């Protein structure tokens, strides 16, 4: 990074970054229409959102997929869906990013097959498979297999693309989700680079890539980062990333060409920092966050996708996505940002802040490597515990008012917003018929294919998985035979097994000096005495495939601090499993967390299960991104309380939980 660059104008404007919106919902056909509209509006790349069943390797007719099909992304169950998704979109000329991780190999095989059918040369195709499985164990929760097997799949994809798709980014190391899970800038840089080291080590040690080609591997590794509203700090963070990436790739992997060591990243600005309260404030948040990754030319993002103002309320509409695209276009084409070299070169403030983050991130990286690498740090729970602890501290600062969130913990007086006056019409609505159509569609697909070819392809996949053979050829055979997403994942589950990541709750505390906690702790103890039990017991449940567990974990930590005994088994549970745990553990309250929008399917299933088990008396509360109308529906169905992101004071929530228990047991 040249900190002495001449501060005059560039001889010609710098080229803009790739502009995307993260999009996809309902069905492949509906998403294709959305993609076409977005490209016509000037979007220069696609960013595909897949639904949770696709991300976790289930077909639409699987029990766990109930209520989740097409809700947070597009369902892709087989080659026919991928054909429909990109119908009429020339893949050879379109830079495509796919947010897919555990089944990244499968989706890339589907994508490449469709591109070939279009007549495209794979060597010309450009884009990215996210394919960072480590952060799934720490934040998003869409993992399938154990860490070592998952890294093997990533290494196989890297080796395959190096040979067949040299313009493709086979992995997108994600610090984005680490920040959402609580990471400080230092942790975000250190932990993300530890993941990158694990991926590069896995590729190097697989024997599939000659040592002299590691530079070619490094130059196709990209990063996906978060940009929060503290945009000066975010600029420094990105510059620190560049310094350390250059150092690691030079010293650890012997990459001598500076061009190959360049830190390449795309960004989605902080969606979880958007607020349900006064959502119009999200516009200025998004703009400031965009500046954090575009102002510094030497650390400028190569691709940017912005959330919409209403993502804290539900699924954005096409108009909302257009607004976010226009923000990027105004900055890139109307402002003079791209006319200058790096405007922070030589800044004493920026240099000091960069050095501070670099120093701290080195410490974090070294700590992970001393533990045996990022896989060991996942399996021991170290990384998850560190993030849960950091997020608890962040929440404590917001609750105390030390960190101001306008409209939430300060300046809460407000006029009614014309943006939300339409109620449920202010967000995209997913037709419940989508799931039935997808279920029928995948069953028709299975019925119309050559069963013998499917069986042979899956047998080859299982056999190759039991060896060290690259799994991409067997996966491509599965694609051509008509195998489904669930069948591909199921075959590998048989060989690799499934995995449940550590929850990170052990040892975490988040109460800080909260003056209200002592009174709540006394209410918890008094209620337990009146009920004749040793301690109140709370079951925190994550039904369905929603893996965003940060909120559930923070509730669990604060409830434990208040004196509850907390039962938390992690993510991805069926209604039956939650009911069984509630009965077996004899809990006093069930708290369900659903952020995927599937609450109207997932919550009634738990309520019905409790009634069938003879525990209709057991109170149930729900938290998540839940529109007001849906909250009324849930309360009418028997839910005692509904909490949404505007309910940010955790101690107050725990106090409400005690009240729910007392009322359910006829205590004053």
From TrEMBL:
<dbReference type="InterPro" id="IPR016176">
    <property type="entry name" value="Cbl-dep_enz_cat"/>
</dbReference>
<keyword id="KW-0170">Cobalt</keyword>
<dbReference type="InterPro" id="IPR006098">
    <property type="entry name" value="MMCoA_mutase_a_cat"/>
</dbReference>
<feature type="domain" description="B12-binding">
    <location>
        <begin position="535"/>
        <end position="668"/>
    </location>
</feature>
<dbReference type="InterPro" id="IPR006159">
    <property type="entry name" value="Acid_CoA_mut_C"/>
</dbReference>
<dbReference type="InterPro" id="IPR036724">
    <property type="entry name" value="Cobalamin-bd_sf"/>
</dbReference>
<dbReference type="InterPro" id="IPR006099">
    <property type="entry name" value="MeMalonylCoA_mutase_a/b_cat"/>
</dbReference>
<protein>
    <submittedName>
        <fullName>Protein meaA</fullName>
    </submittedName>
</protein>
<dbReference type="InterPro" id="IPR006158">
    <property type="entry name" value="Cobalamin-bd"/>
</dbReference>
<keyword id="KW-0479">Metal-binding</keyword>
<keyword id="KW-0413">Isomerase</keyword>
<dbReference type="Pfam" id="PF01642">
    <property type="entry name" value="MM_CoA_mutase"/>
</dbReference>
<dbReference type="Pfam" id="PF02310">
    <property type="entry name" value="B12-binding"/>
</dbReference>
<comment type="subunit">
    <text>Heterodimer of an alpha and a beta chain.</text>
</comment>
<keyword id="KW-0846">Cobalamin</keyword>
<comment type="similarity">
    <text>Belongs to the methylmalonyl-CoA mutase family.</text>
</comment>
């Amino acid at each position: 990074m040249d900190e002495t660059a001449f501060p005059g104008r560039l001889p010609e404007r710098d080229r803009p970054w790739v502009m995307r919106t993260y999009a996809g919902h309902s069905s492949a056909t509906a998403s294709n229409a959305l993609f076409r509209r977005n490209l016509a509006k000037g979007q220069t790349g696609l960013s595909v959102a897949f639904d949770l069943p696709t991300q976790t390797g289930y077909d639409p007719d699987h029990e766990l997929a109930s209520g989740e099909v097409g809700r947070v992304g597009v369902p892709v169950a087989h080659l026919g869906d991928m054909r429909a998704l990109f119908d009429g979109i020339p893949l050879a000329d379109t830079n495509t990013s796919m947010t897919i991780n555990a089944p990244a190999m499968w989706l890339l095989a589907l994508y490449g097959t469709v591109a070939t059918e279009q007549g495209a040369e794979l060597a010309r195709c450009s884009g990215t498979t996210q394919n960072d499985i480590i952060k799934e164990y720490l934040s998003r929760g869409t993992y399938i297999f154990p860490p070592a097997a998952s890294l093997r799949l990533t290494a196989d994809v890297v080796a395959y693309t190096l040979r067949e798709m040299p313009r493709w980014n086979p992995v997108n190391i994600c610090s984005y989700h680490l920040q959402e899970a609580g990471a400080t800038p230092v942790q975000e840089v250190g932990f993300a680079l530890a993941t990158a080291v694990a991926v590069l080590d896995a590729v190097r040690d697989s024997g599939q890539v000659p040592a002299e080609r590691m530079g070619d591997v490094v130059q196709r590794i990209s990063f996906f980062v978060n940009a929060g509203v503290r945009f000066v700090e975010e600029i420094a963070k990105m510059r620190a990333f560049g310094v350390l990436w250059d150092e690691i790739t030079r010293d650890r992997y012997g990459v001598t060409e500076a061009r190959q060591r360049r830190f390449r990243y795309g960004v989605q600005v902080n969606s979880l920092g958007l607020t349900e309260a006064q959502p119009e404030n999200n516009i200025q948040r998004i703009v400031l966050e965009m500046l954090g990754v575009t102002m510094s030319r030497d650390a400028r993002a190569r691709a940017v996708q912005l959330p919409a103002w209403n993502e804290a309320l539900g699924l954005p509409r096409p108009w909302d996505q257009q607004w976010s695209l226009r923000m990027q276009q105004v900055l890139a084409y109307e402002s003079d940002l791209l006319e200058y070299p790096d405007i922070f070169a030589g800044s004493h403030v920026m240099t000091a802040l960069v050095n501070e983050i670099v120093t701290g991130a080195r410490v974090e990286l070294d700590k992970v490597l001393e533990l045996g690498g990022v896989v060991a740090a996942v399996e021991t729970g170290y990384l998850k515990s560190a993030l849960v602890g950091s997020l608890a501290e962040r929440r404590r600062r917001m609750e105390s008012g030390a960190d101001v969130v306008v409209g939430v913990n300060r300046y809460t007086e407000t006029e009614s917003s014309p943006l939300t006056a339409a109620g449920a019409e202010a967000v995209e609505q997913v037709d419940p018929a989508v799931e039935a159509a997808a279920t029928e569609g995948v069953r028709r697909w299975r019925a119309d294919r050559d069963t013998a070819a499917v069986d042979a392809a899956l047998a080859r996949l299982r056999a190759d998985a039991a060896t060290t053979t690259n799994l991409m050829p067997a996966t491509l055979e599965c694609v051509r035979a008509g195998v489904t997403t669930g069948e591909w994942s199921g075959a590998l589950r048989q060989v690799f097994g499934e995995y449940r990541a550590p929850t990170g709750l052990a040892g975490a505390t988040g109460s800080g000096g909260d003056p209200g906690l002592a009174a709540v702790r006394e209410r918890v103890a008094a209620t337990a005495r009146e009920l004749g039990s040793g301690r109140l017991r709370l079951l925190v449940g994550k039904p369905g495939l929603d893996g965003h567990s940060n909120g559930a974990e923070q509730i669990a930590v604060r409830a434990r601090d208040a004196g509850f005994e907390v039962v938390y088994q992690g993510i991805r549970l069926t209604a039956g499993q939650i009911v069984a745990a509630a009965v077996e553990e004899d809990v006093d309250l069930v708290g369900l967390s659903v952020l995927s929008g599937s609450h109207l399917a997932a919550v009634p299933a738990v309520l019905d299960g409790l009634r069938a088990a003879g525990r209709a008396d057991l109170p149930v509360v729900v938290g998540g991104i839940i529109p007001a109308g849906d909250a009324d529906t849930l309360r009418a169905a028997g839910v005692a309380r509904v909490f949404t992101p505007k309910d940010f004071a955790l101690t107050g929530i725990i106090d409400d939980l005690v009240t729910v228990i007392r009322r359910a047991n006829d205590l004053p």
